[in-house]
Amino acid sequence: MQYKGKPSGLLDIETLRSEVAEGRIHTVLLAMVDMQGRLQGKRLTADHFLDEVVEHNAEGCNYLLAVDVEMNPVAGYDHASWESGYGDFVFVPDMHTLRRIPWIEGTALVMCDLAWADGSPVRVSPRQILAAQIKRLAERGLLAFAGTELEFIVFKDSYEAAWDNNYRDLTPANQYNVDYSLLGTARIEPLLARIRNGMQGAGIFVEDAKGECNDGQHEINFRYGPVQSAADGHSIYKNGAKEIAAQEACSLTFMPKFNAREGNSCHIHLSLRTTDDEQVMADGQELSGRGRHFVAGVLAGLADMTLLFAPNINSYKRYAKGSFAPTSIAWGRDNRTCALRLVGHGNSLRIENRAPGGDVNPYLALAAMIAAGIRGLDEQLELEPACEGNAYEADKPQIPRNLRDARDLFAASSLAKAAFGDDVVAHYTNMAQVELDAFDAAVTDWERVRSFERL
């Protein structure tokens, strides 16, 4: 189901002015999304936001799209470097995203697009990359709708305690598999309810929460909607869930593979409609001709785009046979062993991409799916027969097994270059190289255990 009307929790400027005047809101979070999919920005006094930023925007250091996960400035990015002086880009508030943040007293948030001083977009910004693909769809009379399903593991330890213990010997919120268990989820319902209610109060439609397989693993799902709104909601939710967990003196992680048990996935559901709100994907209960072309494009581009579905070293630890994370590039009707799973009926018919993990940047992943699907539409690619049975054992191409292989495929991809531009491809290829270099230089516990005495 797509969004209908304006969700509760979203604000317009006049309502914000009234809330500020009456003392109910005093802070506005000015947020952009970085390469890792995290919210970055500033806490503004609400008066300053209304008096200055609404009309004149704000600025932030352009190194925000040129750092590693630890916020270290790194080389290899064209737009930001020591040589160029690490100047500013412009934070342009998207007023359609202005909303309350109920879990922080007196606070609102607005998402920002990034622009240069001359007003041109910062093309390597994740939000702009997705916007460019939305525009390409619109040129074809189409709109995309999406929903993301993020899994996480909850621990009874605070983030500070987890850090101090080097993330070892943590206590999961559940001691056994609570997949679909109402008894098991009741153990942490106070936290889950706070997250659900907080997101609902922030204008993000919540549908449900359920337990998952790993100890302490859970999932909260949100209503299907326009892709830009879905990506914004994903990022706000991910940040907010961590903030709420911290307020409850516990912690949660979205990392794709925390231990040898089931990893944290982020299944992405995607479908198309015309600008006249007509279904595109379905012909009755099955895929339409255009639906088949679109899915064929997503399937054909999956290997080239894996870097945007699995952007980190740890991402690839999920891909294992019998794990509910895919290894084969295949599609099937309601088949959870495939990378692409066709689900729903009639107007709800959609494709589910099961490749991304909990570390995915939703803007980049959705942009990748749309770009690949557009090629399928434009070239009228034929969809291969659906995979029947166990795709883990099928004779199908395999998802890249590591970040290095995914980086190489993305860097050489004619699909990525045509859809995003050489500058974007070079930017995210460099991001992968930064992660590879950091990992290659690290000495791990695994090496110490195997080598300290026995070698």
What does this protein look like?
The chain contains 14 helices and 17 strands. With 455 residues, the chain is of the alpha+beta class. It has two domains: 13-120, Ubiquitin-like (UB roll) (Roll); 133-446, Glutamine synthetase/guanido kinase, catalytic domain (Creatine Kinase, Chain A, domain 2, 2-Layer Sandwich). The strands form three sheets. Strands 7, 8, 9, 10, 11, 12, 15, 16 and 17 form a nine-stranded mixed β-sheet that branches. Strands 1, 2, 3, 4, 5 and 6 form a six-stranded mixed β-sheet that branches. A two-stranded antiparallel sheet has the order 13-14. Strand 8 (206-211) and strand 9 form a beta hairpin. The longest helix is centred in the middle third of the chain and has 21 residues, at 227-247. The N and C termini lie far apart (58 Å). 49% of the residues are buried.
End-to-end distance: 58 Å
Identify low-pLDDT runs. none
Q: What overall geometry do the principal axes of the alpha carbons give? A: globular
Main sheet attributes: strand count, strand direction, barrel closure: 9 strands, mixed
The proportion of residues forming helix, as a percent range, comes to 25-40%
Number of domains: 2
CATH-defined topology of the largest domain:
Creatine Kinase, Chain A, domain 2
Q: Mean pLDDT across all residues, rounded?
A: 96
Number of helices: 14
- Which structural class fits the helix and strand makeup? alpha+beta
Instruction: Identify the CATH homologous superfamily of the largest domain.
Output: Glutamine synthetase/guanido kinase, catalytic domain
Number of strands: 17
